[in-house]
Amino acid sequence: MRIAAAVWGTAWLSLAPALAAAAPPNGAAPIDAHAVAVARFGHDAPWYEGNVPLFESSDPKLDEIYYYRWRVFRAHQRDLGPRGYITTEFLDDVGWQREPYASLNDASAFHIQEGRWLHDRRYAGDYIDFLHSQGGNDRHFSESIADATWARFLVDGDQAAATRHLAVMKHIYALWDDHYDFDKKLYWVEPLADATEYTISSIDASGGKDGFSGGQAFRPSINSYMYANARAISRLAALTGDKATAADYAARAADLKAQVQKSLWSQDFAHFIDRYKVNNEHVKYWDPIRGRELVGYLPWTFGLPDDTPAYAAAWKHAIDPNELAGPAGLRTVEPSYEYYMRQYRYIKETGERECQWNGPVWPFQTTQALTGLANLLNDYHQSVITRADYARMLAQYTALHFKDGKPDLEEDYDPATGKAIVGLARSHHYNHSGYVDLVISGLVGLRPRADDVLEVNPLAPSDPADPHFLRYFALQDAPYHGHRISIVFDADGRRYGRKGLVVSVDGKVVASAPTLARLTVPLARKPAAPIARPIDLAVNLVRSDYPKGSASAGEDPRTVHQALDGRVWFFPEMANGWSPGAGQAQPWFAVDFGKPVSVRAAELSFFADGKALAAPKAYRLEAWIGGKWVETAKVATPLDNGVDRTTWKPLTTSKLRAVFDLAPGQDMRLVEMKVF
Fold first, then answer.
1. Which uninterrupted H or E stretch holds 591?
2. What is the DSSP string of 154-219?
3. Which of 319, 406, 435, 521 is most buried by its number of CB atoms within 10 A?
4. Separation CA 488–CA 503 (nearest Å)
5. Cα–Cα dist 388/373, whole Å
6. Residue 4: band (very low, low, confident or very high) from pLDDT cuts 50, 70, 90
7. pLDDT (mean) for 417-442
8. What is the number of alpha carbons within 13 Å of residue 295 lying toward its C-beta?
């Protein structure tokens, strides 16, 4: 039996008129889930339908990038077989990843906070397990993974999953003592290990000559991360009744908060800044750096600063075009800095520019700043910055995602033009940031909480004259505390048949307001949905190990391995998978498990570009039984840019192969072959 499990060839149509159903009188979101999935994701629709929360608004670019970022998230899911799924930063391998998994821990918190909004909780859950129980959080970079684990609990309410790694969280927290100054009571980090090479501290520590490494400093980043991790461990421990651990880590968080405000707040800059750990001929230990950086907003990313006018004043720099507010996005360093936007680092062989943080716009830190701004607008009392600024910055960030009119997020951008600076072969569809969470918890305003309360506070502008005013928006079926939440706004009632803001739970209206407003309603949580974890038996992480791939033609070890490496994406910019070459009438691809295994299903994914590559006309699956190949299943009309799932009665075999029928002169690409 063959099941269509899902491309996106029709994804970028004009969708709004076609996908909105007739406006319902109760104001519930009228988004046609199936129509959206097919239009946005084509044959890959089944992965998304019923899995991602639906969203639409009067801004088509916002809608497009919302769904594009789910495509990026899906593309970066790597299936490690019995080790579960992880989320990668780069689509393909890079030299500094953790082998053989291709994992990096610097953006893990973003991945978890995006993945917590999926109905299928496996992706975030597996990744959290990998980070804590399989060494994934190797402290290669500074991190806030314990806090992200808490953030996931705020959405799904799964206490057992959130607390199972408490002992490892405490162990990792203690390991960071190697970056703790016991006299200053603050953490320090080399900017490179903070995932932010070429900052003020590292450049100035080199005397302005470089900045890739060095420049160790007490930074707002690592101290905010450690504050957030300590607070998360305290709260998770409290869930288990461990009062001693809860009190211990609450005290650690309180002490860090006090020290950050005492020592890293600059009265002169009205901003949180670095102080040097390094001491050399260029810079002195404990001296402050000589400029403002975007990293100074990270304390608000985790709700660290006190609610005072003095601290809130820092946000004026984010809206000043002479300071951190660039025409195309938030600068990482202000233009007044001596080495602002000076390019130091290039690819030696090609002369292409490499990553720096001395001014360029980075999606990574833009996400952190916008998260901090959302926290400020929700939880603080200030008048420096407004919801209109949040919407404007989100619109700038949205625009960065487009390259030549099509979505393709890369590494960093020129703050003056919005053009990519680092757009290397590795850079396409870069997963080093968040976006979906900024829309759901920020713009739409679904604010996750630990108690039995549903809080909604949209940050969308309320003034119709605002250039980023949304005449309507709808978030439909977001998972929260075991329920499905929908949030709908219609400024004039013409879109959804009811004017104002309407909040629904499981299809029933529970709160409303005539205009955008903060709404809270009691919401008793329901048990989190169970997680299904089928195991791919064909995944190969190390080429010399079993399972092993082989093919009738096109036996490049790299591409053969790609068809079994647990990675599935259909982006055309980066090839992934095995091709036999044109002119092969019935090529085959096989997997040798190295031992007898029981198998009952397979998933094959094919990439098509409408040119040289197409899905095969048909294929059959054969198992090695009794010293010969025995047919187990046939697929008459394979999908392109999607997943074909085929099932049969369980059988035991040591090898399985697919034999393909190709059209004359046509080539194919097998993106992945999974066996269950």
1. strand 588-607
2. HHH--HHHHHTTHHHHHHHHHHGGGGEETTTTEE-B-GGGGT--S-HHHHHHTTTS--SS---EE-
3. 435
4. 6
5. 11
6. very low
7. 98
8. 30
Q: Which two tokens stand for residue 151?
A: 């953030």
- For 441, 443, 603, the CA distances from 294, given in Å and listed in that order, are 21, 21, 44
Question: Residue 178: what are its φ and ψ, rounded to 5°?
Answer: -70, -5
Q: What is the mean pLDDT of the chain?
A: 95
The better pLDDT of the pair 277, 27 is held by 277
Query: Phi and psi of 356, rounded to 5°?
Result: -145, 155
Half-sphere exposure of 656 (CA within 13 A, CB side): 28
- For residue 218, give both structure tokens: 């007490």
Specify whether the CB–CB gap between 64 and 39 falls below 8 A: no
- Please, which residues have CB within 8 angstroms of residue 521's CB and are 6 or more apart in sequence? 453, 454, 503, 505, 510, 511
Distances (CA, A) of 304 to 216, 231, 289, 354, 508: 22, 10, 21, 33, 36
To which residue do tokens 């602002």 refer? 340
Beta bridge partners of 673: 604
Report how far Cα 40 is from the mean position of its chain's Cα atoms: 19
> What span, in angstroms and rounded, lies between the C-alpha atoms of 442 and 373?
9
Express each pLDDT in 593-642 by its tens digit. 999 999 999 999 999 999 999 999 999 999 999 999 999 999 999 999 99
Collapsed DSSP state (helix, strand, coil) of residue 592: strand
Q: Which amino acid is at 74?
A: R
* Beta bridge pairs of residue 78: 86, 567
Is residue 36 within 8 A of residue 495, CB to CB? The reply is no
CA-closest candidate to residue 642, choices 594, 606, 603:
606
Q: Which amino acid is at 14?
A: S
Neighbouring CB atoms inside 10 A of 508's CB total 9
Q: What is the pTM of this model?
A: 0.96
Nearest to 658, CA basis, from 635, 676, 637, 640: 635
Is the per-residue pLDDT at 54 higher than 70? yes
Helices (H), 42-81: 45-48, 60-75
Report the DSSP pairing between strands 420-422 and 453-456. unpaired
**Rounded CA separation 270/489 (Å):** 37
